[in-house]
Amino acid sequence: MTPITRDKLKQLYKKVKHLRLPPKLEEADFEKLTYYSWLDQSDMCLFLVYDFRGTTTGLRLEVIKPLAGALRLGFCEFCHKHRKQSDVFFVACETKKRPKGVEYQSRGTWMCSNYLICNRDMKNEVLIKEFFERIVEIP
Questions:
Q1: DSSP string spanning 46-69?
Q2: pLDDT in tens, the chain (139 residues)
């Protein structure tokens, strides 16, 4: 993954009014990462950065926690691993890109809450690429 800086993150998320940048960005080893993410606990939003089609692209996703006891194991769509309930969450965002005949505007997926573990266990980046294709509107 292309290394990112605080200025690059501010540029990616310039529409976010109160952007809280990740505290340990400088410690990230971007050579070993497929994607980078951090959770803003105050807004319960996950910020996801990925090199999509050669361009560093960022998504702001809403974290939707399942009801207590509703889920014992979760399945991350990116690394294809089963995780404990506390280690996965459902993220979603609204999108303008929709297949014909589809009425919903929100797309989402289950993913690991720890991006380092997810990156470590990810075999290939096809699934995260498909997720970005479903959400990002291509001009």
A1: EEEEEEETTEEEEEEEEEEPPPTT
A2: 899 999 999 999 999 888 999 988 988 999 999 999 999 988 889 999 999 998 999 999 999 876 666 667 788 999 999 888 778 888 988 776 666 666 667 778 889 989 999 999 999 889 999 888 888 765 4
